[in-house]
Amino acid sequence: MMIPDILKELLKAQEHFDSVLYSNCFSEEALVFDEGKTYRGRGEIKDWNERSNKEYQSKMEIIDISTENEVIILRTNVSGTFDGSPITLKFHFKIENEKISELKITG
């Protein structure tokens, strides 16, 4: 499966630690679920990404991509300045109208 353009944009934004570009990949009312917390809308997503970038300096390497019930799943190796680095994480994306409407990050 090919990576959708919006996810390519998201990965590029993360590579450059650009929280504005990162959050613009999401719909206005998108949801992000990470570490037991929920972030709603571009503003909260931008703030969450900005904090994560400052704290962890995460880099992501894609292992594989799959789909399940219209959810795109990126399995990745994530490294950074956090305990246990690197770790394998799955990023579950729902895309609607060429924007990310939901992201759930799991171990």
From TrEMBL:
InterPro entries: NTF2-like_dom_sf. This is SnoaL-like domain-containing protein. It comes from Chryseobacterium shigense. The lineage of its organism: Bacteria, Pseudomonadati, Bacteroidota, Flavobacteriia, Flavobacteriales.
